[in-house]
Amino acid sequence: MKKCRIIFLVLLYIFLLLFTLVMEWLAIQEILVRAVVNLCTLGMTVVGSAVFIQVYKRGVNKEEEPDKPKEMAQPVFDREIYLAFAKEKMLTRRETEIGLLAANGYSNQRIAEELFISETTVKKHLTHIYEKTGACGRKELQKACCRNPQEERADS
Question: Domains in the chain: how many in total?
């Protein structure tokens, strides 16, 4: 969308420049026609400036406030505990990365953006993680990776 507005802005200014040059070349003598031409030029300048300001403000706002992950209601899992859990369950390096982000509440889209992969790839890795850990979803994955191995032995 931003690209379209910039292209529109550039085209508008090119048209404005050509329009002004043609009117000067014609050297309009009638006052009424000259007034209409000047009002059209002024109108195009105002529209172009408004588009430019809008594009600039959106660009500045994005630079100042990049997309941040949503605040988690639950505490962030300790990386060391999760790494031990992943090693125990024989997760691959990529599955470990994705699983840690998923356990911390990141959405599939956010994980894909963080790791520069597609959402489909994230879904496939999550499926493998769930199969290896016996979890049916993120909440069960969170519970499983936080469970103390001694508690599991006591339950058996």
Answer: 2
